[in-house]
Amino acid sequence: MTAKTKKILLNETELPTSWYNIVADMKTKPLPMLNPATKQAVSEEDLYPLFARELARQELNQNDTWIEIPDAVREQYKIYRPTPLVRAYGLEKALDTPAHIYFKNESVSPVGSHKLNSALPQAYYCKQDGATNITTETGAGQWGTALSFAAKVFGLELAVYMVKISYEQKPYRRSLMQTWGAQVIASPSMSTKAGRKILTAQPNYQGSLGTAISEAIELAMQTPNCKYALGSVLNHVSLHQTVIGLEAEKQMELAGEYPDVVIGCFGGGSNFSGICFPFLRHSLREGRKTRYIAAEPASCPKLTHGVFEYDFGDESGYTPLLPMFTLGHNFAPSNIHAGGLRYHGAGSIVSQLLRDGLIEAVDIKQLESFEAGVLFARSEGIVPAPESAHAIAAAINEALKAKEEGKRKTILFNLSGHGLIDMSAYDQYLSGNMINYSLEKEDIEKNIEKIEKQLR
Ligand SMILES: Cc1ncc(COP(=O)(O)O)c(C=O)c1O
Prior knowledge:
Elements: E1 7-8, E2 18-20, H1 44-47, H2 53-60, E3 66-68, H3 71-77, E4 85-87, H4 89-95, E5 100-105, H5 116-128, E6 133-138, H6 142-153, E7 157-163, H7 164-169, H8 171-179, E8 183-187, H9 193-201, H10 209-222, E9 226-228, H11 235-255, E10 261-265, H12 270-286, E11 291-297, H13 302-305, E12 307-312, E13 321-326, H14 348-355, E14 360-364, H15 366-380, H16 386-405, E15 410-415, H17 423-430, H18 441-455
Parallel strand pairs: 5-15, 6-7, 6-9, 7-8, 10-11, 10-15, 11-14
Antiparallel strand pairs: 1-4, 2-3, 4-5, 12-13
The structure holds pyridoxal-5'-phosphate.
Pyridoxal-5'-phosphate (PLP) binds at residues 113, 139-140, 142-143, 232, 265-272, 340-341, 385, 387-388, 416-417.
């Protein structure tokens, strides 16, 4: 019997030296962000009060295909990168599929997810810009955890607004952030105007990423030498995450395969962008036929059931207007355990790619995602984050389709994080107490109508 290669590893010297900026290769560029007051395109300078200058530059950069990764960031990446690419033989066997399934294992980062890929450069550029403090929001706590470590590495004080439902469901994520020295506040809180407004109207509101973003922006605007950092949605975040796909591209080459399908779960779009964009560049430049599938929760389906509109990135309307697939910025998602996917909108690059038919989206119900997560844990040994389980469910569906069609297909998905701090969610699933949240078409339409009226 010949030995089968399970893990495809790169060494430190093969760590990418640049991030890939897909916008430079897009024929139809994403529409610009707009200033909500003037409806004019936002300039780099408009973003300076909130973001580090280099991040503002990266956000609006449509020309440079490659953006160099600073040495200080590459040094920190070396703690956990390059991450392994793994052939999921166990899962293939469990599904009895002719498909070859690979996953990029971002769960090996010290914080447990892909979020550190952008947290490190964001903290680095904020420090370079003279900031002493930063603020952010976090859903399930993965982004806040990553930024807590990155802030410590680069000597910044961090305040994190954590969506209240996750603050209560995932106390160990809060402990992790505090261990790395961050201050963590449950959102909505009484510490900001945005929080007070929503709590006065709905005292039991369990929070949303949109509200937590408003609170973090408000604090950043009021604090001297303070910048704001966002863990998804924006172009510069997707840019940083391309280290995932750039490494995966080399590793697939070493495996002697090229993916027919690339899959990522979808919150605001950063890990999906990270795994897909480097492969998409071959579709854009050489017309290579690959499918790219974003897996979102059925209870927060902006890509599959939302509209393409200019909308705010946060609940209170503090951000510029972004051209995005959205459910409306005050959409209150159900309390699913995949807290990182409870976001009303999608980044403007992925939104444009979806409009142009270059990527696809599927929606996955909560129970289906946990069923997939448990099968993955039992066949590959890793307990996936509830968010990542959406990508696994989509990969399983593709592998089963390949079986039905009797086709040999190569599937690559991103394992964006592990679920070891999400075990209360698994407990609920295993004890049969988990439910699917349904979302009526009329409720989505009503919410979107409300937003459209507000923005006109
Ligand atoms: C493990 C994990 N995967 C995926 C996501 C979704 O975010 P994004 O779409 O930016 O990758 C999150 C967000 O918190 C997360 O924690």
